[in-house]
Amino acid sequence: MCRGAVRKSEPIKQWVENLTLSMVPGILVKMGNFRSGKKVKRFSGSTVLSSVFQLANQTRTMDREMLKREGEVTEEEFLVHHYSTATEPLQVQLLLMEKGAKFNTMKRGFVEMIGRPHGSGGRFRVRHGNKILTGSRGVLEYVDSVTGVDLTSPALYPKDPLLRAKCQQWQAWEQDFYCQDMVYLLERRVVAQKLHDRYDMTNLDELLALQNDVRFLATFVHIMKLYMSRVVRGTEMWEKLGKTYGHLVEGDAVRVGNVVMYMELIRRRLEYLDKYLKNKEFLVGDMLTFADICVFCRLLFLPGTGVHISEKLYPNLAAWMEGLRQRENFGKIAEEVETNLGKFFTTEAS
Predict the structure, then answer these.
(1) In the beta sheet, which residues pair with residue 133?
(2) Cβ–Cβ under 8 Å, residues 99 and 207
(3) Which helix (H) or strand (E) holds 80?
(4) Does the pTM of the predicted model rise above 0.85?
(5) What is the DSSP letter of 235?
(6) What does the alpha-carbon distance between residue 171 and residue 294 come to, in Å, rounded to a whole number?
(7) pLDDT tens for residues 27-52?
(8) CA separation for the pair 308, 197 (Å, rounded)
(9) Contacts of 193 (CB under 8 A, 6+ apart)
(10) Which element (helix H / strand E) includes 164?
(11) Whole-number Å distance between alpha carbons of 309 and 349
(12) Nearest CA among 114, 151, 145 for reference residue 229
């Protein structure tokens, strides 16, 4: 009677998990024994299933804690999760500013963005009232569709199918630019240094503890690869980390070869963009669209790769960037990037 009362008081989700843990391993073993015709001791999935459910519980707990941190968000405003090394939050912020929408930002740790597709993956999100939005393209389209509907604030995502397709092409272009060409240099010049600013010998255990954090299970090795890229052999730091993570360090020949290759790829991208922008004020059509917003925000991080938009080498691109920067909101976003990351950027023109 008592056991039944306890069972009824359990949350249905917990009850299902407990039932699965108690029943499924035994069923799998019996199936294996039947197929083999022998009674042998087989692998029990209890440990694995227990770990899976533990991670699921951790994730649900983190989601609940995040909602508490975010607090109440009204239907009239947005809450943008901001990461100092990610372009996507800036794109959304700039779009909201251009549409005259109310929003707040929540600062998040840049480490969560390391190793994520397009610099964001599933971590970057926006709250609008009780709606939780993720994914760069989906967020931008949603924001544009629900803000500035009056005639004085036109849509920045064109209704014309051809112009809309071109906007999508440019968004895909800038995301591919980051993933294929920029990320290697940006991570090793900017993100790796920020990691060392965040974790030194006094709190190195905090860095190593990330391997047990559900948020970093898929990216911890990549985080350590970036961190080790700036650890000098023979130092106290190397003595502590070298034995376990020293194999992650690239050889000098590989590193130099990669730097040269990616800088050349970036310059080719810029040459293409410079030719395209000849006699153009905007990327798509004759008005500002979120294609301009996306590409502009991405290029703000370019100095972190060591490549700069020189007026001599890329006159059309430099004029386009400067023209947009003269717009009040674009200028504010550019200043924000320079304030947060300017000390990591190189000043040598290229």
Answers:
(1) 126
(2) no
(3) strand 77-82
(4) no
(5) S
(6) 6
(7) 666 666 655 555 555 555 555 556 55
(8) 25
(9) 230, 344
(10) helix 161-176
(11) 7
(12) 114
